[in-house]
Structure formats: C-alpha cells, structure tokens
Prior knowledge:
The chain has helices spanning 151-168, 201-217, 229-236, 240-252, 303-306, and strands spanning 2-12, 27-28, 56-62, 72-79, 94-101, 138-139, 147-148, 184-193, 260-262, 292-298, 315-321, 332-339. By secondary structure, the chain is an alpha+beta fold.
Amino acid sequence: MVETAIDLGFVEDCEPWLLTNKFFPSKVGGKPAWLDLKNIPKPKDLECPRCKEPMVFLCQLYASSDKEHCFHRTVYVFICRNGACYQPNDASTVRVFRNQLPLKNDFYSETPPDENEESEAVESPVKLCRICGCSAFACCSKCKKEFYCNVSHQKADWKARHRQECMEGKKVENFQNEILFPEFELVIESEILEEKKKETPEEAEARRLAEYENLVKNGQVQTMGDVPAAEMEKYVGETEEDKVFAAFRERISQNKEQVVRYDRGGKPLWITGDLQLAPEDVPKCENCNETRDFEFQIMPQLLNNLKREELDWGVIAVFTCSKDCDIGERYVKEFAYKQDIVKDDEGEKENIDE
C-alpha cells in the first residue's frame, strides 16, 4: 500500500451541532457555517446568471494556512440547483469564496472548542435567510421576525410553515427544507493506493484484442472482417480521451466513495482529455493579481448524496490565490472550472462506477 500526498474527502453522518461555525467544519449541504460573521456575501453575489435564482450551498473545506492572517481559512462552494441552467464545461452555475481570519479575531475564542460538549453556533450580527442561511435583505411584512435572501425563498417558507406560524400561531414540527442539500460532515483522509504492476503497451493491446475476440466468440459482434475500422479501434487502440478516462477510473477505483480530492498546488485529476485547463488559462486573483493554484476538486460521486437527478458534472476544479492574500474581513471570489463528459451520439455517458 502507498500513501500519496493527496487528501480525500468522504461524507459521513454527524451531529448537526458539530457542523456549526464554532467547530470550523468541513461539510456538505445544509446551511453554510460562515467564518467571518459580518461581511457575508450579498444575495447578488450568489445569484445564478441564468435563472436569477439564489445559488445553494454545496460544500465548504476548512483548510488553514501557516500564514498569521489566515490561521482560520475556509473555502465555500455554491451551485445553482436548477439543472436546466447547466451547460457542458461551463462553470457559471458555480460560485467559490475564500475567507480567512487570524487566531485572534472578533468572533471566536483562541481556545479550541470542546467537541464532547454540545453547544450553540456563534451567532451572526447579520440577518440571515431562514431557508438557506445566506445574507438576507427582506423580512416577513406581518411579524417582522423571519428574514429571507430572495422572494422565492420567502414564498417557499410561507407555504411550508410560516403561514401557520405567522397567521395561526402554530409551531410546525419536522420541517423538511426542500431547497437545501442533505447535510454531512466531510471527513478528510489520506489517499492510499495498492501498488499494481503497470501494464505495458503490448500487454494492453493484447488484452483489448482478447476482449474483442471474446465478444466475437459470444456473438455480441460480427466477425472481425465485417467490422468497420473505427469500431475495431476500440479494441486494438485507445484514443487520448480513452486513456484519460481510463486513468481517472483506475485512480478512483480503490476509493470509490471519495467526493473531494485535495491537492493544493498539485494538478486536477481530469475526467476527460477534452478541454483540460492549462495553468496559464486560470485567471489571476482578482484581489491581488497573483496567480491562482489548484486546491481541490469536487468529484461526480457527490451527486449521489445530493438526491437531485437533474444536476450533473464531471469534476469541478477549484483554484485559489497562491499567496492567500490578506483580504481582511471579506469573502473573496475564487475560480472554479467545470469539466464534463460530453454525451456521445446515442446521448449516453460512460459509467465511471464500473
């Protein structure tokens, strides 16, 4: 077994109170556990450019730095929940923010919290949306007690529970928030791989030819002489696309449940050879104009946990400022790149779980 320099993220169930800001969590779904509690992104910062609806919190990674000004450091990812907005290899439906604080700050104690004792989150002085936990700008016109980031979230809450609470004085039990994704802890572990004998090009060609001959023997295809050359190439040779996808499947096969790969300063594990992003194509930090480095990628396996069949991606690669520039008490936008497996002529994608 070999331990690599890459960390993998896996989802696990967890007590909700351990996923609040007080414990600096890495997590998936639910409401964001904001680090800086004052300068939270505005609703306009989280608006999908296509449907104009609010993006929803997907995940956050707590990744502290050895720099004094970012003793606490978290990267947040939001996505549009409307599947119709997604286009191949287009990350406009994804929004990434970086936020960081020194050890001594206005919100949290310098003493680590006790994870064995249940406690409340550190409350934000900013009004937050009751539905999604993002910055709010409007409140219920009748009771003036509940706040929202968007009219659609206010309507959803009114229909599901607030009408009964506000108009009838009834407490709604077991409210199911249909807008947020299911909440999980994101547990980080080192990637461990089995050492495997590398297949030579000659062995690979022999294997593919044997597979093809077996298909002929079983009557699944015609005899070799009757098969077009383009079809034959699937078995006697691989395109660059085939090689990249095969390498992707091979790498994740030993840790199939991974939903995040963290390798700051490394390279993404691309899912296809098409439209890979060159380092020079990553835009510089909008705050300090320094280069951005790859930090982590979100894997397609996470889609299984979101319970939203209309959503789809190959991988989402996140790039952040290489200098961890001092942004003060702000959330600064970082860069995301979404790479997809484009559908073939029959409208189907290859199965990466095989």
